[in-house]
């Protein structure tokens, strides 16, 4: 925890390596001090087939899934910092967005917990 899952147009990973994109997101999340660095997970899902409106504009959208307990301000800062860094890496990509979702501690489970 946390998980940052990037959905993007496949041309995004042609202009920058997936490793460099994931590292940027990892480094930005780590720099907030909200997470144990060993717990940050980043994945990329590039899409060949997609529509944005009625066009095929490049896009990046991140689904950030974090454990509950952070303030709205902390989550907003996390979102803005990640989008800002991606905007710097991809000034030509017209759509860069993120949403942060909270996991409930009461219902979260992983294999070390059973």
UniProtKB/TrEMBL annotation:
<dbReference type="InterPro" id="IPR004220">
    <property type="entry name" value="5-COMe_2-OHmuconate_Isoase"/>
</dbReference>
<dbReference type="Pfam" id="PF02962">
    <property type="entry name" value="CHMI"/>
</dbReference>
<dbReference type="InterPro" id="IPR014347">
    <property type="entry name" value="Tautomerase/MIF_sf"/>
</dbReference>
<protein>
    <submittedName>
        <fullName>5-carboxymethyl-2-hydroxymuconate Delta-isomerase</fullName>
    </submittedName>
</protein>
């Amino acid at each position: 925890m946390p998980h940052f899952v990037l959905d993007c147009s496949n041309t995004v990973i042609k202009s920058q390596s997936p490793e460099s994109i994931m590292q940027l997101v990892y480094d930005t999340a780590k720099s907030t001090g909200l997470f144990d660095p060993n717990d940050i997970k980043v994945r990329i899902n590039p899409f060949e087939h997609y529509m944005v409106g009625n066009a095929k504009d490049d896009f990046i959208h991140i689904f950030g899934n974090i454990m509950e307990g952070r303030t709205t301000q902390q989550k907003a800062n996390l979102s803005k910092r990640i989008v800002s860094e991606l905007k710097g890496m991809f000034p030509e990509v017209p759509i860069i967005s993120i949403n942060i979702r909270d996991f409930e501690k009461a219902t979260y489970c992983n294999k070390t917990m059973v």
